[in-house]
Amino acid sequence: MTWLENQKQQILNKKLPPHAQTSVKRPACPATEARGPQIGARLIVSSFRERNDRKQTSDNKSERPASGRRDKPFSTPRQKAPDDGSEWLWGWHAVSAALSNPLREKPMRVMATEERARQLTEAFGKIETLGVFENSTIAQHLPQHAVHQGVALKVLPLESMSLEDLAEPAHGVILMLDQVTDPQNVGAVFRSAAAFGARGVILQDRNAPGLGGALAKAAAGAVDQVPHARVVNLSRALERLSDLGWRAVGLDGSAEETLDQAIDSRPVVIVLGSEGDGIRRLVAEHCDSLAKINMPGGFESLNVSAAAAIALYEVTRPRR
User: Fold this and answer.
1) At what angle do helices 183-195 and 304-316 cross, to 10 degrees?
2) Rounded to 5 degrees, what angle do the CA atoms 127, 133, 139 make?
3) Regarding beta strands 173-178 and 200-204, do their DSSP bridges make them parallel or antiparallel, or are they unpaired?
4) How many other CB atoms sit within 10 Å of the CB of residue 319?
5) In 49, 74, 157, 197, which residue has its Cα 20 to 30 A from 307's Cα atom?
6) CATH code for the structural domain at 163-316
7) Is 197 left (phi over 0), alpha (psi -120 to 50) or beta?
């Protein structure tokens, strides 16, 4: 009888518990003694089948999703942009201005906290599509980090005016934006236009953002107070405006004439380009004059919305 068989027989005779049947103390051999102290060491001996069973159990317990991450609590994903042509407005000023605008279609949905719902009802009476929700529920319908101030509105976009309706009769000031695509900047331009009483804003049909969402929030309701027109070709639009009695002045930091020198009492279109590229060559050629904002500090350029505010102030201030 071999040594291993002898050990198994002793285990059977003693009727040890099951877990002890796989633990057998072996005498030290010369090979192990040469490696260093092995006193009290125990060798775990298991059958091939037992080792396989434990391996499969261990593998099953360690199974995780393919991503390698633990499952997280369920959370409601943010909704995708509406596919029915509508847009979301958020923020108290943007929403209240939209509800006050008679040219707007009736809102498809209004979401508000309990306090904001009370304020809306006091200001506008009963709103059929108004619902009361928690702040977190409102946020789920909006882009990430949208500061909605407890109110949001889903509505069809504003209709633009025709160029002729916007420009006739010729008086005052109109802003024209060439390749200005940042919603925050365009929203701030609308806000300045409302503050200084501009006739309207002319945008490109393409390469210009829609007047909802972050733009409307930055405009603080001005998109519903200042008319706008969208045109396919700015150069042709300037030609048409000239026929209607308007004079075009393009802002260009490299111009020799300053804005206060270029402005007179005639109706004027102020043309502003993007902060990086400025007004495009063909558009500049259709302007009656190019002018720069006088900056004694020597700084090269201003943000387009800041330049618009300064230009509007210069144009609207009383002249002798």
Assistant:
1) 10
2) 110
3) parallel
4) 10
5) 157
6) 3.40.1280.10
7) left
Give the model confidence (pLDDT) of 171-212 as tens digits: 999 999 999 999 999 999 999 999 999 999 999 998 899 999
Residue 271: which H helix or E strand, with range?
strand 268-273
Band of pLDDT at residue 319, cut at 50, 70 and 90: low
Rounded Cα distance between 302 and 281, Å, is 20
Residues β-bridged to residue 178: 273
Distance CA 21, CA 139 (A): 62
Q: What is each CA distance from 165 to 84, 261, 269, in whole angstroms? A: 28, 29, 15
Structure tokens at 76: 């409601």
How does pLDDT run across 236-286, given as a tens digit for each residue? Answer: 999 999 999 999 999 998 899 999 999 999 999 999 998 778 999 999 999
Where do the domains of the chain lie? Answer: 3-54, 87-155, 163-316
Peptide bond just before 169 cis, omega within 30 deg: yes
Digit-coded pLDDT (tens) for 87-106: 999 999 999 999 999 999 99
Element (H, E) at 155: strand 151-155
In the chain, what percentage of residues exceed pLDDT 70?
73
- Please count the residues of the chain: 320
CB 213 within 8 A of CB 87: yes
